[in-house]
Specification:
This protein has about 60 residues and is mainly α. It is built from 2 helices and no strands.
């Protein structure tokens, strides 16, 4: 039986069921600034965007469970 090949780079994706991906398009300058700000704070762009989305939802009371 053939051995299964692992997809992508190790350690990049969270375990299944923990988080889901969201693909979006943004201005390249905004992306650059987000990545730069995240690096300065020793965090990830993904975490920065998750926090920003949570704050936006809190202010707008949209998407509440």
């Amino acid at each position: 039986m053939a051995e299964k090949k692992k997809a992508g780079r190790p350690g990049r994706k969270p375990p299944p069921g923990v988080k889901k991906q969201l693909l979006t398009s943004m201005d390249p300058e905004i992306i650059r600034r987000i990545k730069s700000a995240a690096a300065l704070r020793e965090t990830t762009a993904s975490l920065v965007m998750e926090q920003a989305a949570a704050e936006w939802l809190e202010r707008h009371q949209d998407g509440k469970k």
